[in-house]
Amino acid sequence: MQLPSEEKQNIPVGQANPRVWPLFVVVLLVFLATIVVQLILAGILAVIEISREGSFDAESMVVQWGSAPMVVMNLFSTFLCMVGGALLFGRLSARRAGCSLADRLGLRWPSFSVFSLVGFLLGSVPVLMLSLVAVYLVTLLLPPITGLSLLYDGMTTPWAIVFIIAIGVFPGVGEELLFRGYMQRRLLQRSGPWVGIGVTSVVFGLVHVTPQGIVLATIIGVWLGLLAWRTNSIWPSACCHAVINSGWNFYQIGMIHEWIPRDFPVWFSVIGGLVVLVAFVVSIGVLWKMKPGAPN
Predict the structure, then answer these.
(1) 102-121 residue pLDDT tens
(2) For 212-270, how does the pLDDT look when each residue is reduced to its tens digit (9 = 90+)?
(3) pTM of the predicted protein model
(4) What one-character DSSP code corresponds to residue 209?
(5) At 185, which helix (H) or strand (E)?
(6) 8 A C-beta contact, residue 145 and residue 65
(7) Could you tell me the sign of the dihedral formed by the alpha carbons of 237, 15, 85, 87, in that order?
(8) Residue 181: which of 193, 170, 173 has the closest Cα?
């Protein structure tokens, strides 16, 4: 797979050298919008708490804010902000460039086989494992945030199922639409894959705020960016993003709720590891044969 700096995404637009500074402004605006929405939700929750208890209890407020229903609500509100921002500014960008919204954001489904998609999904596992190793190294220097552990412990089974679905679908679609669709495709057109995928992955990592989250998201973002670039569509990366999020959280919650064993047999781990490694290698081969910026 060639990654020359001059190779650019073939997106039908009217500008040879499109502006890129609006991309960073839009991402910042969407990020600020998610914060404002969450502050509004927190304010509503505080009003409900005061009206019900007659006073404000900060400890109770923190517990409720970290409960599964509120986390799912925050995921949904963030999803709406990202999708709304990508569609709104994507439409404005598409009109300026003289192309369709589908072409501007990479909304067309690529025509590859189901087996290729399964390979991409399984091939995402080694990328996740690599990112978790990097997170572990960061944790040796900086203590992790334990909020997720408290969230997992307090979940009922119905809310655990809702959370597992929400943590996959909402970020999987919303973040891919904004980052791999709106941001990366314009950077690919302007600067090629090295800059396009690299810059998008770093920005994608930074919006995850915590050191562990930044490292995890940046590494996974490179893989998702590669998928979106070579397939000329955000949907393969959105599917892999959703499976990574839901799969990892299912594994964590499953151990706590004893849905799955904490220790797997050695043969299962070896065979599973070989399968996902082969899937990763095959995925790279499939992506190698695809021509970026053209229907596959």
Answers:
(1) 999 999 998 888 899 999 99
(2) 999 999 999 999 999 999 999 999 999 999 999 999 999 989 888 888 888 888 888 89
(3) 0.89
(4) -
(5) helix 184-191
(6) no
(7) negative
(8) 173
